[in-house]
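User: Please fill in residues for this 340-position structure.
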């Protein structure tokens, strides 16, 4: 990695929360069934904290900064089934911090268990104070109000917002890129492309910044779980540029390096499409890989389509970055009737 970028990473406050490196495994069964390039999976569902997830890479740095600043309370915002809220709640328990989770009801017509199982059940198990708000709430304003009240009471509150990634946390994903390429080098494995879910821009932007620091020419394909490709690509590029600057790199991520496929969003964020269900079944039944129906399932649908459409070369090595999210399965049990 670029010496200045590595020095910047090493100097940042950090708390160790996860099991690194996460496994890099072949997807032998799926590769055989699809008949395309050689497929692998980077198992960030195995990061260890609170049943795993890639967001812990970001939290090691953002919460590291909060601890260094003397914070004793952390506020986190997101949807009711926020993976990030679950990880923050668990990390707070590990670090001895009070956690307040401000969660919004963003989806309509969800089964009753959606509000009480999955991630929100784990939030409460880890001791977080869970506050649920109706759909349409200005959650950023509520977070600001809660933080002011907590600070007025004499505590030092840190805030981890949903959907508003910052470079000081996103660099954790750049470190994840370094980890992946180190593993590949040890195996003498060329990585031609990486496919991942793209929703809040942080994961893809950070990974692209890591590739830039490594001078890696690997193709990075994001699969949107919510927004249009144009909107997603603009967000990812802007954040990737900010992150490379934060790392002290002279050459930012070029716009043409940002690629997002938005064909697998289905009826909207949080609602699995038929392609999501197919992808979950293919991954589980041919390689025993568990995917969630909100992020990884849609991203894997994008990977399957790219292989079928011959968007990779036959001899390529393609890595699927599994971002985690397994607890979502239980909140969506009644929505997955199409699995047979």
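Assistant: Residues filled in for all 340 positions:
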């Amino acid at each position: 990695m670029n010496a200045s970028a590595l020095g910047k990473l090493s100097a940042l406050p950090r708390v160790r929360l996860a099991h690194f490196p996460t496994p890099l495994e072949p997807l032998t069964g799926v590769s055989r069934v699809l008949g395309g390039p050689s497929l692998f999976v980077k198992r960030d569902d195995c990061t260890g904290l609170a049943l795993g997830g890639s967001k812990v890479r970001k939290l090691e740095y953002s919460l590291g900064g909060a601890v260094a600043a003397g914070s004793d309370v952390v506020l986190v915002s997101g949807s009711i089934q926020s993976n990030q809220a679950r990880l923050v709640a668990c990390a707070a328990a590990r670090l001895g911090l009070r956690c307040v989770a401000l969660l919004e009801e963003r989806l309509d017509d969800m089964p009753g268990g959606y509000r009480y199982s999955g991630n929100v059940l784990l939030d409460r198990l880890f001791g977080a104070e869970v506050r649920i708000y109706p759909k349409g709430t200005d959650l950023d304003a509520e977070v600001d109000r809660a933080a002011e009240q907590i600070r007025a009471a004499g505590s030092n509150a840190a805030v981890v917002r949903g959907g508003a990634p910052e470079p000081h946390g996103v660099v954790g994903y750049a470190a994840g890129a370094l980890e992946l390429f180190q593993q590949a080098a040890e195996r003498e494995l060329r990585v031609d492309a990486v496919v991942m879910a793209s929703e809040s821009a942080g994961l893809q932007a950070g990974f692209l910044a890591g590739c830039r620091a490594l001078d890696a020419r690997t193709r990075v394909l994001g699969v949107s779980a919510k927004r249009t490709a144009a909107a997603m690509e603009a967000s990812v590029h802007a954040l990737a540029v900010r992150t490379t600057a934060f790392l002290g790199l002279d050459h930012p991520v070029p716009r043409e390096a940002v690629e997002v496929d938005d064909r697998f969003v289905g009826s909207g964020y949080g609602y699995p499409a038929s392609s999501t269900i197919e992808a979950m079944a293919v991954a589980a039944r041919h390689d025993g890989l568990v995917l969630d129906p909100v992020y990884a399932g849609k991203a894997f649908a994008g990977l399957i389509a790219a292989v079928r459409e011959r968007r990779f070369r036959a001899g390529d090595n393609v890595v699927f970055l599994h971002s985690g999210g397994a607890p979502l399965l239980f909140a969506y049990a009644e929505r997955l009737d199409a699995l047979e």
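For context: The longest helix spans residues 167-186.
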